[in-house]
Known about the structure:
This protein has about 290 residues and is of the alpha/beta class.
Amino acid sequence: MAIAKSELILNEDGSIYHLNLKPEHLAQTIITVGDPERVEQVTQYFDQIECTIKKREFHTQTGSYKGQRITVISTGIGTDNIDIVFNELDALVNIDLKTREVKEKHTALQIIRIGTSGAIQPDIPIDSFVVSEMAIGFDSLLHFYDSKHIQLQQLSDALIKHLDWDANKSTPYVVKSDLNLARHMQSEITHKGLTVTNVGFYGPQGRVLRLSLHDKNMNTKMASFAFKNYRITNLEMETAGIYGMAKLLGHNAISMNAILANRATGEFSQNPKEIVDRLIQYTLDKISTFNH
């Protein structure tokens, strides 16, 4: 059955509405970054670039690195943008845009986030890397989808109890990364992470400028949370949405985090761009050894 024009929106040239991409523009391996300027920070290492497409905050370049075809796309900040990007990436490979019908054969994308983050554990130093094995969403994105079957309810329930979670806030959800990707991207220089995805940068992450917080002890309580062998390691703004949407749509995702701040010690990296660049090179070299 064809999907209505109001639901699957295409531009006049047949490209997908927000991203402005056509299926031929997309590689099966995709790197997502928040900052549009970070796209070229990644693709500067490519052997060649096939295409460059920009619309709004969504900047895309596709090319190759050591024989691997890769698309790099900026999502902007937050899981609301993740909803747009992941639905449209999936449509490009799993919906026939001409007939507007879902394809019989499903294509699974390999999606790697390269982003920045703040640690909440004092033993995770600034300028280190965290590979997120699981993510906790403090946003509400996944609750708009039929998603209970991919959520880790026991961990969520334990966290709600530990934090004395306010019912006026969205119920936290927990989703795993793709375990094969996680193992591949880890090494002796990375930390394993249980990452919290927040709905904002200031109050939701416990930062105080001029506004007082509803729960001033939230970060301390998160840092003391333990579930089996897991503890919360870091805070950022996209990973839980990425893991949730990827699992629901049948794709594989992992989040690579450059730790620029340590909230427990109050430190911030003196060379943030250099640290992100190191993570980019590390991630590209790991991707180059993928087996498709």
